[in-house]
Amino acid sequence: MAKWLDHAVFYEIYPQSFYDTNSDGIGDFKGIIAKLDYICELGCNAIWINPCFESPFGDAGYDVSDYYRTAPRYGTNEDLKQIFDEAHKRNMHVLLDLVPGHTSVEHKWFKESMKAGHNQYTDRYVWTDSIWEEPAGMGCIRGISERDGSCAVNFFSHQPALNYGFYKPDKKWQQSMDDEGPKATLEALKDIMRFWLKMGCDGFRVDMAGSLVKHDEDGKGTIKLWQNIREFLDQEFPDAVMVSEWGEPDKSLLGGFHMDFLLHFGPSHYNDLFRCEEPFFSGRGKGDVSGFVAKYKENYEKTERKGLICIPSGNHDMIRLAKTIHGDELKIAFAFLLSMPGAPFIYYGDEIGMRYVENLKSVEGGYERTGSRSPMQWDKSLNAGFSNAPEEDLYIPLDRDINRPDVESQQKDETSLYHEVKKLLKIRRSHPALQNRSEIEFVYAEKNKYPLAYLRSCENEHILVVINPSDQEQTFDCSYIPKETVYHFGGIITATGSHITVPAGSAGFYII
Ligand code: NOJ
């Protein structure tokens, strides 16, 4: 199994908005290569690139029309291979985004499957057997095919659902996982994975991984399907890393994924931390972390403390972190994000506190997500150093705020968020107890109370993490005695016997 994952720290790149080297107003592969050293210097050693394959871009590339060819606007397959090679030279790893649940309506498989006559793609998607019958609860595409039937959709209505079968088919047109059509879809997926892994990618972030088998309420069929894929990987690419967008680690890790994300949807209480009316990480101190911790502990136990549960700083689907929390609150949030188990994931620009850009017109199916996908702010030059194209040609407008953060300014300022993130990553690297697989025990996480305290441990090291985002001093009882401070922001705790006093707006890591 890929050992690098034990120390991996990911940086998510939304390629459109990262760095444009050919002045067309949109980011590209060469731009990613040009910025690998930046990512490395920050302290990240792995990247996840959002879908970069041929697509009509009705959903920012999550509507693939050819899984084997990169979108020309980013560069060629050769250029993508160069990203793998350049990353490996720097001891970094690359995950591509795999979209197994649906394609674009423009994919040749879909065009073939719409034909009336039988062909090898007839059963590639979930079709009913009459135009008048809709696949209940799934939404559908109907009335545009020669074929008499409605095709289920997976997300937007231009994303037809690929057919991996129904867990318990109860209609004539529903196929079982073991039918020929679903089996062929699965093999086609393996071929795609094989193609990119052979070229040098290190694994995949898998889109909507938990929804492949239909009518599979408790995920049993989908888990089985991913176990089958893991078997194939173990035989051919044992080091391939798999990260799921599933949000239920007890299921995804059973399916053979190495990691799962806690996200803004699903049962994780992730939103209680940063994205709700009273986030725990706001200085107002009116948040509640207890629901998140209870759910985290449940997942942690269910996954037998083996798997990696990831708490991302954000992603291309969420409102930016810096919309609800600001200034020092962001630094304290990063002290938490970068001291938890599981591999950290930093969404591009979160390390400088890039803002959510309000009131943007939707771009490529982004809708309210568009404001979290604006161009990276590198410096104070034209277009924040993102592109030399005329401003009106930029793929998404930039944050127009005169005080918008940028990398260069923050690199010059030792007190910036950029430097805090960099420092935290360095501390994480140099302390085994803070690594991805070291244990966690929650020490203090009470309902509507502050601080949050937890112990991170490995064989020879135990670190007590105490986080108090609130603007009030707080106290709690703790049986561990802090001895040496390895990190602090905003003041150091004081211990009187088992009674610990925590300064307002502070975060600290203490060896016990
Ligand atoms: C989840 C992706 O993260 C999101 O951006 C996309 O729109 C949907 N899946 C559909 O693929």
Describe the fold and architecture.
This protein is α/β, with parallel strands linked by helices. It folds into three domains: 3-101 and 182-428, TIM Barrel (Alpha-Beta Barrel), CATH 3.20.20.80; 102-163, Alpha-Beta Complex (Oligo-1,6-glucosidase, domain 2); 440-511, Sandwich (Immunoglobulin-like). Helix content is 24%, strand content 17%. The chain has 13 helices and 20 strands. The protein has helices spanning 29-34, 36-42, 77-89, 108-113, 180-199, 220-236, 249-252, 271-274, 290-302, 321-324, 327-337, 407-412, 417-430; strands at residues 10-13, 46-49, 53-54, 66-70, 93-98, 140-141, 151-152, 203-206, 241-244, 259-261, 308-310, 345-347, 439-444, 452-458, 461-468, 474-477, 484-489, 494-496, 499-502, 506-511. Strands 11-10-9-8-5-2-1-12 form an eight-stranded parallel β-sheet, with helices on one face. Helix 6 links the parallel strand 8 and strand 9 (241-244). The longest helix is centred in the middle third of the chain and has 20 residues, at 180-199. The chain is globular, with a radius of gyration of 23 Å. The chain starts with 9 loop residues before the first strand and ends with a strand. The mean pLDDT is 97. The protein binds 1-deoxynojirimycin (NOJ). The site of 1-deoxynojirimycin (NOJ) has 9 residues, from loops.
